[in-house]
Amino acid sequence: MSVVTDSPVHSSGSDDFAAYLNEALDENSSSSSSDEEAEGKNEFEDVSRNKRRKFESTEETEGSTSEGIVKHELVFAESSVKVDVCTHPGSFGDMCICCGQKLDEESGVTFGYIHKGLRLHDEEISRLRNTDMKKFLYSKKLYLVLDLDHTLLNTTILSHLSPEESHLRNETDSLEDVSQGSLFKLEHMNMMTKLRPFVRTFLKEASEMFEMYIYTMGDRPYALEMAKLLDPQGKYFNAKVISRDDGTQKHQKGLDIVFGQESAVLILDDTEHAWMNHKSNLILMERYHFFASSCRQFGFNCKSLAETKSDENEIDGALAKILEVLKQIHSTFFDKLEGDLVDRDVRQVLSSLRGEILSECVIIFSRINHDALPTLQRVAQKMGATCLTELDPTVTHVVATDAGTEKSRWAVREKKFLVHPRWIEAANYFWQKQPEENFGLKKTTNNS
Amino acid sequence: MFFHIVLERNMQLHPRYFGRNLRENLVSKLMKDVEGTCSGRHGFVVAVTGIENIGKGIIRDGTGFVTFPVKYQCVVFRPFKGEILEAVVTMVNKMGFFAEAGPVQIFVSNHLIPDDMEFQSGDMPNYTTSDGSVKIQKDSEVRLKIIGTRVDATEIFCIGTIKDDFLGVINDPTTV
Ligand SMILES: [Mg+2]
Ligand SMILES: [Zn+2]
Questions:
Q1: Last residue of a domain, which of B20, B55, B77?
Q2: What is the pTM of this model?
Q3: Which of A28, A98, A102 sits opposite B109 (nearest CB)?
Q4: Of the candidates A324, A102, A106, A364, the residue with the CA atom closest to the CA atom of residue A202
Q5: Splitting chain A (448 residues) into consecutive groups of 10 residues, what average pLDDT does each group show?
Q6: Is A296 found in the same domain as A155?
Q7: Are residues A275 and A374 in the same domain?
Q8: Which residues of B touch A21 (CB under 8 A)?
Q9: Of B77, B81, B92, which to mutate for an interface test with A (greatest number of A Cβ within 10 Å)?
Q10: Is residue A342 part of a domain?
Q11: What whole-number distance in Å separates Cα of residue B10 and Cα of residue B56?
């Protein structure tokens, strides 16, 4: 190969330097550089040696100035680092991150959310996950993975705004300084986004207890745009915004691309089935529906918050409640659990705290829809409730949708609590037994 | 390394550009076409600095387009294995850090960061020596050695190391 047609005519007065450049350009554009060197050596060394040898041969034929030699030595000052045979733990731009060698096969997990072209092998991922874990835990931090839609915010396509919501078009906040606003029109994406009340306080306080990730089923441009609204200074989510473009499994979210040990990760998401393999890390969020299109998408026919010009409560809304739960989990993990920090498991804390919510309740269900019953039972049991199928004096709560059923009437007679199934759902979302009187049943005249 | 070299390119020009300003049109199209592009051989074309020679145009049948062979001088930038580069850190994390030197994106993995530098997470993730005297974080300037390069159509990727004498931070942004 030759570069005669593009020879660097103006770069240097000395012929040998021009010759050297030709050598170097050739050297680097052809990947097969070391042919006669012994195998098993670090490629980098081989190439450099090869280069030096070639350079010397040009010296012999063309002679050289001392200046040429000095330049050469400076640039190719031999590395004294001896690298053992490299395991190629990962790649960047298809080159090994350890030895720089070009790697042919595309293998390992892509970490596009950190930098495109970065791939790591499983062993390297678990090595990174385990190193510094002790130090990380001693700094009293855990990991928190946050969903976007319906958890931290609600987004609608502009054209899906209902007529009653059109007033919002004139009420959006400036994109100049997003840290003050909560309603944004993103013209270039044809979207409008409403941040959930309390979200800024939530992120600020949570960041003191957790290293935080965003993990959304939206695509990367959307995810990054939302991250900018939530974290304009890039303090919380820098290079920790994971989108569906990054996942390793379709329609599933996984902790395999998060650099935290699973025993130290909490997840906040409104969609349980996205986390099939990590349910024990999950704190299920009550969905935030600000826009009518979002309500419709989930089959609600009620007016949206935007249509009624209202919103979730800032002080005791879902995020404020969950922040309290997170604080409790955090302090239990670090201050109450015994044993070495590294051996503790936040999933245990989660399930034992959950198990206390309804621990003194003995529940019996009355004429609950067959589809809904198993889930309700499972949720109640996870919160520590005892579920019975036969009436019994120990029963404390009858859960029904109809006050006229036999068990409902028994509850009233025996002065037991008679509550709607939403009482269980609310306890599940707020991690607290809810006042029964807020979930009472309307009296029906229909006696069966 | 930067090089000042002469390259050649066949430029296709639409007939509407012919006339008095033909040469200017050719040059401005050339700049638009080549500046900021990369080739595996020469690296990144930083700027066109002059025209050596414009050959005779050949008219294409049917379209009226004319192809001119243009010889031009330009400054190119191309990193080499073994080269020492100064770069600005753009991102620091558990895996190592990313840095940029003009169009070149460099990754220095934590395998190639000296063992006495430890990763610290937080608002401003960084690698710091145990005595706290040296810190690498976003916007730090570092001197590193290239151990691998790959040149794409528009980007140059490099693997770098700072695990050697005289490599590492040359300018700490927090002390300025
Ligand atoms: Mg969601
Ligand atoms: Zn390697």
A1: B77
A2: 0.80
A3: A98
A4: A324
A5: 38 46 56 39 42 40 39 44 76 94 85 92 90 84 96 96 92 91 94 96 96 95 96 92 90 91 96 94 96 92 91 92 96 91 93 95 92 92 94 93 91 93 94 93 58
A6: yes
A7: no
A8: 3
A9: B81
A10: no
A11: 11
